[in-house]
Amino acid sequence: MAIAVFFVAAAMAVLGGIGVISFHQPIRSVLSLVVVMLALSVEFLLLSAQFVFAVQIIVYAGAVMVLFLFVIALLGPARELGRGRLRFQAWLSGLFVLVLLGLMWAMLQGVQYRQPDSKADMSLFGTVQAIGVGLFTTYLYPFELTSILLLVAAIGAIYLSRKRIDDL
Amino acid sequence: MSTLNIGGSQIDTSWFLLLSAVLFILGTTGVLVRRNPLVILISIELMMNAANLALVAFSRQLQNMDGQLFALMSMTVAAAEAVVGLAILVDIFRTRDAEDVDDLSELRG
Question: What is the DSSP string of A98-123?
Fold first, then answer.
């Protein structure tokens, strides 16, 4: 049953990923990415990551993707024109990604996995309590740094989109 | 050795990693082949999602919460990067209608 859920979600994710890079209209690429994110959130839930599952849907698919949609609505429909300057770019990229996929597959064969401890207490794994304990004790410093990072990003966005009187 | 007991079934960690690799490859293809700057940003988001999946898969394998916390941080960084990238994009599109990143090859506002 869990295997069926995994394969359905994986198929949705891969189809969405192919859609992201294939559609000519950016709006369809964004919506394909939303499909990928929802499929990945199901995968997170399969991996006992309850909080990450919820955050992926609420924050990533629900806020960051909506930001992309707003930008597309602001910029208007745009279509990619025909061939670019490098005519063989698509074939070269295809070869490169095939090589990269082969390398990754080879690397995955050599991974030495540690046997999971079947007697470990996994009742709190992935819960909000475990996230809170980790985020506010061990990783408090990175947590505060991300708040500064978000502040910097917000200031940067406001500055970059300010109204210019003369053409700077 | 890498099988996880998920919901009563035995699922291998390497399946999740393979899915993560395939999604990462698809994102890389998008960055290399597409010329619309918006689609390139979207492909970068796809790559970051694939990395998050790998992080959470290993977190489950090693029974350590660090991977999921790292994934949360990664989502935060991705959100901040998307905000700034899109602000730059909107700024560029305001002055000229660029549908091809090859046209944006000069370091000029």
Answer: HHHHHHHHHHHHT--PPPP-TTS--T
Query: Locate tokens 């506010």: which residue?
Result: A136
Please judge whether A153 and B27 are an interchain contact, meaning their C-beta atoms are less than 8 angstroms apart. no
Q: For A63-103, how does the pLDDT look when each residue is reduced to its tens digit (9 = 90+)?
A: 999 999 999 988 877 655 655 666 777 788 888 888 988 89
- What mean pLDDT comes out for the span A137-154? 95
Class of domain A1-79: mainly alpha
Q: Give chain B positions within 8 Å (CB) of A18.
A: 26
Q: Give, as one character, the DSSP assignment of residue B1.
A: -
* Domain-located, residue B17: yes
Token duo for residue B87: 């602000």
Nearest to B14 among A108, A125, A135 (CB): A108
